[in-house]
Amino acid sequence: MAQRYGGEHSPGMSPSTANPKAGRLAHAKPQRGRARSMWLGVAALPLLFTAFGGGPVELASHLAAFALIALAAWLTREGLEAQDAYEARSISRRPAIPRKLFGAVLTGLGVAVATFDGGLINAALYGVIAGGLHLTAFGLDPMKNKVAEGVDDFQNQRVAKAVDEAEKHLKNMAELATETRDRVLIARIEAFQTTAREMFRTVENDPRDLRGARRYLGVYLQGARDATRQYVDLTRRRDNPEAKAKYMALLDDLEANFTAKTEKLLANNQDALSIEIDVLSDRLQREGIRAHKSASPTDMTPDILAEPAADPLEDKT
To answer: What average pLDDT does this structure show over 123-145?
Structure first.
């Protein structure tokens, strides 16, 4: 199926789909090291050209070295993607597989195999240097879980697991949309992903919100993924404008509901903060510490911290 291109003023494109709305994820940094990981695989290409014409041993060693370095480049890129996902979230489990570390080891092995004809010691030194340079260029994988302060491990694990499952549903939706090569649909789903991830970050910042958002992270996103699969299966046979209109309307409703729920969660958090401030203020007043009336609830300075009053019994001279 041909891929349709278009901009904001093209037929079927609206401002919301041509330019997905920017939220707190709009400041996300581009994937670091992407170009360097690609060049890592490109740098191994000469091994393919030098593998032939030198005998079976040289052929096998150069092909093995190329395979090791190419695998290292792929693992490194996967590790960078996992690190970006880890750093974008407030609560996250560390990657189960340290891909960048394995990439460094394979890079060292690949270089050692490629230079083995110069002697074992030289090959080992080249391999160690290559592995060290890989770690210098790409760093190590995240080695510990991200947790919210003041929240027990059980709650952190529940939130991390729920967001992981929700991210899988969003990823499946994006993959299905890519199969259609419909830029309008792809852009629309990207906009919905931004809205959904706003809720993810809200829940991660306050794990107490998970109870109210669980249906959105589970049932609703799973239903959206299933609807996307059915729509894509239907349009594989032929274009169906009516089905597309219904699917787009479904995404509009979902996005509106996710936005409203996220705002409600944020409002509840604000109310909880106000209650905590009021309780603290009352407690300070009972202890004889009066807050300045001119100060805002969030910028409260007790009188006890002000300059001490003059002692009336002090001898005045």
So the answer is: 88
